[in-house]
């Protein structure tokens, strides 16, 4: 059955003219952008045809994706068993650090979606972007620290669907990408085998100086702590983090907590959790309401 799926997908790509088949710190971060710049065709910078190599304990991610609210902070599923409901966004301009512009269409995404996105990209392991990436659902779930029950497979299906149906327009003033987070997804219902394809042009944000290697062990230690995970991703992109105001971080992470007083309390707890896991020194200056993060070791970003 698995071979049948792979042959079918290969045939689709061959007929579509895409024969590639395989098994398998900028410091100017002083504000947020709410208004879109012109997202028009422009001269492109070099595109990384292959994702940068990282150690098994790291996952490469574009700084432009981590420095905004593409993957934000959502509340946990309601305890009374109600089905999780995510807001659908249509051409919504998302908050980002200054210099970036992000417009999104699709369901809201959170840090669990980012974990899946990170692992999907990591599965390339030297293969060209645009290749067919094949994996078993159980193996994938184990890799991101999930169980392998029927609900977990259903959850993975939902996340992959959300990533494939989320379209973004992302620009840093020099580089530009427009397209879905995952170009195509295929699934064998009997074997739980998946095949995914990325748009090769997403590699424009993985060239030198534009990506960071996130430490998997640290993210797992923060599992379930959405705000702490978002902070981990954002601050991992900076060796000497910029001091943001609490209100700025509230907007950047797209938190559902809109009252600054409540968010500040959540932020203090998240910074404490972040400090314990990473060894970074994190605090809020009560006089200026600025958030400070001081690192004792550099993070792998290129």
Estimate what percentage of residues fall within beta strands: 15-25%
Number of helices: 9
Give the helix level as a range of percent. Answer: 25-40%
- The secondary-structure class comes to alpha+beta
Tally of strands: 14
Order of helices and strands: HEEHEEEHEHHEEEEEHHEHHEE
Largest sheet: 4 strands, antiparallel
Rg of Cα set = 19 Å
What general outline do the C-alpha atoms trace? Answer: globular
| Overall pLDDT score | 85
Number of domains: 1
Give the distance, in angstroms, between the N- and C-terminal Cα atoms: 41 Å
Strand order of the largest sheet: 3-5-7-8
Spans with pLDDT under 50 lasting ≥5 residues?
Answer: 12-44
Key terms for this structure?
21% strand; three-stranded antiparallel beta sheet; four-stranded antiparallel beta sheet; alpha+beta; 9 helices; 302 residues
Overview of the molecule:
By secondary structure, the protein is an alpha+beta fold. The model is unreliable at about 10-45 (pLDDT under 50). It has helices at about 1-15, 65, 110-120, 135-145, 150-165, 215-220, 225-235, 245-250, 260-280; strands spanning about 30-35, 60, 90-95, 95, 100-105, 135, 165-170, 175-180, 185-190, 195, 210-215, 245, 280-285, 290-295. About 30% of the residues lie in helices and about 20% in strands. The longest helix is centred in the C-terminal third of the chain and has 19 residues, at about 260-280. Helix 3 (about 110-120) crosses helix 5 and helix 7 packs across helix 9 (about 260-280). The strands form 5 sheets. A 4-stranded antiparallel β-sheet has the order 3-5-7-8. Strands 6-10-9 form a 3-stranded antiparallel β-sheet, with helices on both faces. The protein has a 3-stranded antiparallel β-sheet with strand order 12-14-13. It has one domain. InterPro entries: TrfA (IPR010751).
């Amino acid at each position: 059955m698995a071979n049948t799926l792979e042959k079918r997908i290969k045939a689709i790509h061959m007929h579509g003219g895409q024969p590639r088949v395989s098994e398998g710190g900028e410091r100017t971060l002083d504000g947020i952008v709410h208004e879109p710049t012109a997202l028009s065709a422009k001269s492109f910078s070099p595109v990384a045809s292959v994702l940068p190599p990282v150690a098994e304990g790291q996952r490469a991610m574009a700084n432009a994706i981590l420095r905004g609210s593409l993957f934000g902070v959502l509340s946990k599923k309601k305890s009374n068993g109600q089905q999780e409901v995510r807001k659908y966004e249509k051409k919504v301009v998302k908050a980002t650090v200054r210099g970036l512009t992000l417009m999104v269409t699709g369901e809201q995404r959170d840090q669990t979606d980012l974990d899946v996105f990170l692992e999907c990209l990591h599965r390339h392991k030297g293969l060209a972007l645009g290749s067919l990436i094949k994996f078993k659902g159980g193996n994938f779930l184990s890799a991101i620290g999930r169980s392998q029950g029927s609900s977990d497979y259903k959850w993975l299906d939902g996340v992959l669907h959300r990533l494939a149906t989320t379209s973004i327009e992302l620009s840093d003033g020099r580089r530009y990408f427009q397209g879905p987070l995952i170009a195509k997804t295929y699934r064998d219902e009997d074997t739980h085998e998946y095949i995914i394809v990325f748009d090769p042009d997403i590699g424009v944000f993985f060239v030198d100086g534009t990506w960071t290697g996130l430490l998997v062990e640290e993210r797992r230690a923060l599992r379930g702590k959405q705000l702490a995970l978002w902070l981990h991703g954002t601050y991992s992109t900076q060796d000497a983090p910029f001091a943001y105001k609490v209100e700025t971080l509230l907007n950047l992470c797209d938190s559902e907590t809109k009252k600054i007083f409540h968010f500040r309390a959540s932020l203090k707890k998240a910074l404490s959790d972040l400090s314990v896991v990473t060894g970074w020194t994190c605090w809020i200056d009560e006089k200026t309401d600025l958030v400070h993060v001081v690192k004792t070791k550099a993070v792998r970003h290129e």
